[in-house]
Amino acid sequence: MEFEKNGCRIHYAQVGEGRDIVLLHGWGGCIDSWKPLMRDLQAHARVSALDFPGHGQSAEPPAPWDVSDFAQATAEWMRAAGIEKADVVAHSFGGRVAIVLAAEHPELVGKLVLTGVPVPGLLENRPNAKKRLRGFVYRTLRSLCSARLLGAARAARLREALVQRFGSPDYRVLSPSMRQTFNRVIAQNLAVFLPKIRAATLLIWGSEDTAAPLAIARMLEKRLQDAGLVVFEGADHFAYLREYPRFYAIVQNFLLKGR
Fold first, then answer.
1. Does residue 14 have a pLDDT over 60?
2. Residue-wise over 133-159: b if at least 16 C-beta within 10 A, else e?
3. What pLDDT is stored for residue 257 in this prediction?
């Protein structure tokens, strides 16, 4: 199935019947990230998942987007797909989108399940000395890659070489446009949206998550109006896959019990 926003083709899948549940994948993921959960939930609900623009089978955004742009596109997709209101299960980047979606479009969101979600602005995270030095070296070298001094083609090649040397694995594989989107996404302060969220929220976190440390989940539990936290001891950023049977049982109980 496909939906189009401002010329951007967005691929999605929908299985099952009944009340709606929406699944939002992490950065670099796609609908396939949710295959086990879609398989198991479809007996109880209509389950919908999309490939975010720039991921899976969806086209890249027409311009660099931030989290709010992804949330707006998600809201428009939900309405176009006939989803009046849904419980939302989201991992990592998908959780960033879910936070803005629940804050800005509360009429579309029932309950929330968030797992491994980085939340810029929630904690004062100061990079360690090694990361600060790495960033300083990158910025210094990049500033020397002047098209005026080196010529456009050579400067572009050197900038790309710096990205390949200093960029994260996620960043290195992106197109130039998606790199701009990535930078906008990670820079957007999401803590400002938390007071607006009314949805009952379940936080499921791996104790060893280094991409979104457990301290974020504990702070979310305090800052959100109606939230509870379940910690998977020893699990990492992909706790929802590493301990899938347990994850599914908890999600099923939270979303479907009594309905």
1. yes
2. eeeeeeeeeeeebeeeeeeeeebeebb
3. 84
